[in-house]
């Protein structure tokens, strides 16, 4: 994990159900903290604060939640967004323990100039994050992927090609593709069209065959 745990102050939340609409209008985001089988804590957090923290921490960086006199180590487990405004509507935190491994979602970052793109091929990205397991202190912010190996049609990178630090285990299927090189639709169309010369030769051959058949019929 890079840097210190990120701090975030929360407040207890009294309102539930439809009443949270007013809470959102007042600049807060309703949230809940799940804690190892204990009763969930219903909280709220200022929109500006949680929006900033989410962009910094994502779902992979430990947070130090301040709730009154309590300090809780946690990860952001889930965020619900308004599909039209793309604004946070609800956040779920999972409390974690410093000495227990946790699962987290870590983004993948393609690095380097991609030869296949320079050659005019299409690079299809099929995975932008992986699930990992590690102690909170060993969590990482991202996994860099060497994209310079993508040069020819058929070249691909899978989860098995990723390198991670000691103490980090990747849970995503090793055979899952991350990125692959394919032909563009235009290139496929060009290959499917027969060459004019070949088309003419085929037509001539058909004509000769027809003439030979007619001559044989006349002799009979």
Could you characterize what this model shows?
- There is one protein chain.
- A hairpin with a 2-residue loop joins strand 2 and strand 3.
- This protein is elongated.
- The chain folds into 2 domains: 6-96, Ribosomal Protein L25, Chain P; 105-183, Beta Complex (RNA Polymerase Alpha Subunit, Chain A, domain 2).
- With 220 residues, it is of the alpha+beta class.
- The strands form 3 sheets. Strands 1-3-2-6-5-4 form a 6-stranded mixed β-barrel.
- Residues 215-220 have low confidence and may be disordered.
- It has 5 helices and 13 strands.
In what range is the share of β-strand residues?
Answer: 35-45%
CATH class of the largest domain: Mainly Beta
| Total E-strand runs | 13
Structural class label: alpha+beta
Order of helices and strands, N to C?
EHEEHEEEEHEEEEEEHH
Report the span from N to C terminus: 90 Å
Largest sheet: 6 strands, mixed, barrel
What's the arrangement of secondary structure elements?
Elements: E1 6-12, H1 20-25, E2 28-35, E3 38-46, H2 47-57, E4 63-67, E5 70-81, E6 88-95, E7 102-111, H3 115-118, E8 122-125, E9 129-134, E10 143-146, E11 156-158, E12 169-170, E13 177-182, H4 185-192, H5 196-219
Parallel strand pairs: 1-4, 2-6, 7-10
Antiparallel strand pairs: 1-3, 2-3, 4-5, 5-6, 7-9, 8-13, 9-12, 11-13
Give a quick precis of the structure:
20% of the residues are buried. By secondary structure, this protein is α+β, with helices and mostly antiparallel strands.
């Amino acid at each position: 994990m890079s840097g210190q745990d990120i701090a975030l102050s929360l407040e207890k939340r009294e309102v539930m159900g439809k009443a949270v609409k007013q809470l959102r209008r007042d600049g807060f985001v309703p949230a809940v903290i799940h804690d190892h089988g204990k009763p969930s804590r219903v909280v709220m957090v200022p929109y500006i604060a949680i929006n900033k923290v989410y962009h910094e921490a994502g779902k992979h960086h430990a947070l130090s939640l301040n709730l009154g006199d309590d300090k809780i180590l946690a990860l952001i487990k889930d965020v619900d967004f308004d599909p039209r405004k793309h604004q946070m509507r609800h956040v779920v935190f999972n409390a974690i323990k410093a000495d227990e491994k946790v699962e987290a979602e870590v983004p993948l970052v393609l690095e380097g100039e991609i030869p296949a793109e320079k050659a005019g091929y299409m690079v299809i990205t099929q995975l932008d994050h992986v699930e990992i397991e590690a102690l909170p202190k060993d969590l990482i912010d991202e996994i860099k992927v060497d994209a310079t190996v993508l040069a020819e049609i058929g070249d691909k990178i899978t989860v098995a090609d990723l390198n991670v630090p000691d103490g980090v285990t990747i849970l995503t299927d090793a055979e899952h593709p991350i990125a692959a090189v394919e032909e563009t639709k235009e290139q496929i169309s060009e290959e499917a069209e027969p060459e004019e010369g070949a088309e003419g030769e085929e037509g001539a051959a058909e004509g000769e065959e027809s003439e030979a058949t007619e001559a044989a019929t006349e002799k009979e």
